[in-house]
Design goal:
Helices cover 31% and strands 24% of the residues. Strands 1, 2, 3, 4, 5, 12 and 13 form a 7-stranded mixed beta sheet that branches. The chain has a 6-stranded parallel beta sheet with strand order 8-7-6-9-10-11, sandwiched between helices. The protein has 9 helices and 13 strands. The chain has 2 domains: 16-107 and 254-306, Medium-chain alcohol dehydrogenases, catalytic domain (Quinone Oxidoreductase, Chain A, domain 1, Alpha-Beta Complex), CATH 3.90.180; 123-245, NAD(P)-binding Rossmann-like Domain (Rossmann fold). By secondary structure, the protein is an alpha/beta fold. It starts with 15 loop residues before the first strand and ends with a strand.
Length: 307
């Protein structure tokens, strides 16, 4: 990764908006693009979420005007001072929400939203296991699960992170190393209804083991490495389990769904019902260091780049 001067976009195409970027969120998907886990054509700009102010709009854009405060996710290239973004990705940011918070909230916030509201819709009688409960997405999943009334068991790697998970509302917080036995103890051997797993290789098999019959494993990341292939019969042997590997793009493909998810997230932030922890901000030139820090898995909360 290197900082380079490229031409500033000045003439947005049809349906496009030029955004002067105020902040860009750093996410594991950026690392997956950089390392080649998710295939890309190079050279290319990284960054899948951002916020800023509209500079210019292209033909056919009627919902946005120069000066509007906006945020977006899943439009690659936000590690920049200016970005040309399809208007279909943009969301208006309420005046009560800081632009850095908006950038920090979009990708992980909508991910937590679809996981808890759509992939496995949580209810008050559910028990959920949330891996990496003190990470950027984990903290949001915990908070949303509690808004829905579920019981939350969170895993973390340190006492400091455990404290943050508890502060977010987790009912139980346990260490990765013995989470299988601890979950069985907490649930009196019954297991949990759902596991939200962004860790991948290191937690996958044990995550299956802590589900009760017909439970659901939601594998939505692989910070410890990709999960190896499994035989479908294994799911039957462990209790007719469900396994899904969702992607945010498929949960915001419809404009109405995008506006609902983003509207909930930004509205909860404005109403102080949802807390976003920005753990660190970096100048754009230090994007590589932000990746190193995120890959170390020693960070808690959200990392943000500021041009």
């Amino acid at each position: 990764m290197e900082l380079a001067d490229l031409p500033t976009p000045s003439a947005p195409g049809p349906g496009q908006v030029i955004v002067k970027v105020a902040a860009s969120g750093v996410n594991f998907i950026d690392i997956y693009h950089r390392t080649g886990l998710y295939k890309s054509d190079w050279p290319a700009n990284l960054g899948m979420e951002g916020s800023g102010v509209v500079e210019a709009v292209g033909e056919g854009v009627s919902e946005f005007s120069p000066g509007d405060r906006v945020a977006y996710a899943m439009a690659r290239g936000s590690y920049a001072e200016y970005q040309s973004v399809a208007a279909s990705y943009l969301i208006h940011v309420p005046d009560a929400v800081d632009l850095q918070l908006a950038a920090a909230a979009m990708l992980q916030g909508m991910t937590a939203h679809y996981l808890t509201h759509s992939t496995f819709p949580l209810r008050a009688n559910h028990v959920a296991l949330v891996h990496a409960a003190a990470g950027g997405t984990g903290l949001l999943i915990v908070q949303m699960a509690k808004l829905l009334g579920a019981t939350v068991v969170g895993t973390t790697s340190s006492d400091e992170k455990a404290a943050k998970a508890r502060q977010a509302g987790a009912d139980y917080v346990i260490h990765y190393t013995d989470f299988e036995s601890e979950v069985k103890r907490i649930t009196e051997g019954k297991g949990v209804d759902v596991v939200y797993d962004s860790v991948g290789a290191n937690t996958f098999e044990k995550s299956l083991n802590v589900l009760h019959p017909r439970g659901t494993l939601v594998s939505f990341g692989q910070s410890s490495g990709a999960v190896k292939a499994i035989e479908p019969l294994l799911l039957a042997q462990k209790g007719s389990l469900y396994l899904t590997r969702p992607n945010l793009a498929h949960y915001i493909a419809d404009r109405v769904e995008l506006e609902r998810r983003a509207g909930d997230i930004l509205g909860w932030i404005a109403a102080k019902k949802l807390h976003i922890e920005v753990a660190a901000t970096y100048p754009l030139a230090n994007a590589a260091q932000a990746h190193r820090d995120l890959e170390s898995r020693l960070t808690s909360g959200k990392l943000v780049l500021v041009p």
